[in-house]
Amino acid sequence: VKVIEGPYELRMETESINIGKNEKFKFDHLKGIGEKGFAIDLNVEDIEWSYDRNLGEIDGEYFISSDV
Predict the structure, then answer these.
(1) Fewest CB within 10 angstroms: 15, 44, 59, 68, which?
(2) Secondary structure string (H, E, C) spanning the chain
(3) 33 falls within a domain
(4) Which tens digits make up the pLDDT trace of 8-64?
(5) Domains held by the chain: number
(6) Which domain holds residue 28?
């Protein structure tokens, strides 16, 4: 069993996210990279997200943008 501290880096296969108002974006293929370079697959629910609530919300594996 390998355990990572951190993770120190979060990687997605998506380089950027472009969505309009009231649209959904599905997170997939999230990886956490530890200090020693070990990588683990992560679920959206595994992450404690921090973002401006005016942008939208995370529901399961989706980010749903607001209508603002």
Answers:
(1) 15
(2) CCCCCCCCEEECCCCCCCCCCCCEEECCCEEEECCCCCEEEECHHHCCCCCCCCCEEEECCEEEECCC
(3) yes
(4) 788 888 778 889 999 999 988 889 888 888 888 988 888 888 888 889 999 999 999
(5) 1
(6) 9-15+22-65
